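User: Can you help me understand a structure? I only have the sequence.
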Amino acid sequence: MLFRPPQIDESRLFLLSEKHRSFIKTGKGKLYEVPRYAEIIVWAIPIVGIIFGIQLLISELNRRALYEDLMQTGVTTQAEIISHRTAEEKSTTYYVTYRFNGTAIDHTSQMYTKEEDVGHTSYDAIKDGDSVTIHYLPRDPNISYLEPLMEPSILGLLIPAFYFLGSPYILYFLIRLYRKRHKLENEGQVLPGELVECTGRKVKGKYQVTVKYRFATPIGENKSASYSHAREDLVGALLPTSDTPVAVLYVDEKTFNIL
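Assistant: Let's start by predicting it. Here is the structure, written out as tokens:
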């Protein structure tokens, strides 16, 4: 199709991004280009979220299976506390080490040693030489835990569900956004419009310009919308007034964007 420039007064035309002037001249261009690395990061976030959610879910299901195994086949016995230690990272983690005489499933007995993290209160209450109750698995006495056993809660499933279900939604949103931009760039026609209002303010250290605009579709229907874009070059400048000409890239009544 032969491109015909829209009837727009370029001497007064306000573009939300100067990079869009190519649409006015040739009908082709790129909408709000971002660095390649930024696009990769944005697309990677939901994918990493899905993978992380799957890992959390697998870990939680394994923890629940272990809890059930300990409750059904585990052996309860006494162990002796033999040492304490702490580890300083983002916060303090408290550990105690205990030993016990365990009997494996083949009926062989031996001493086992296990280090386990505990809360601050338990760490202070338990002294070296104290006797504590522990639970271990006869199929592998190296798997043991102090009493009381922490029963799995529903929260353990909700957290991976948040990542597992929320991340695909973000990915779906990004795909829709990408398809809309691609459609506008390849099928959009430039229509004349005008500003209704234009304001600017600092948002997270960047000067963001927000415009409200209106235009008429090819079938004569009046449309209005708003959009925001970072414009550091307009800091301290006099912003355009209402009735200032703008250009709108238009595909259909749901797919359009100010240039």
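Now, to help you interpret it: The two ends are 21 Å apart (CA to CA). Residues 75-137 form one domain. Let me know which part you'd like to focus on.
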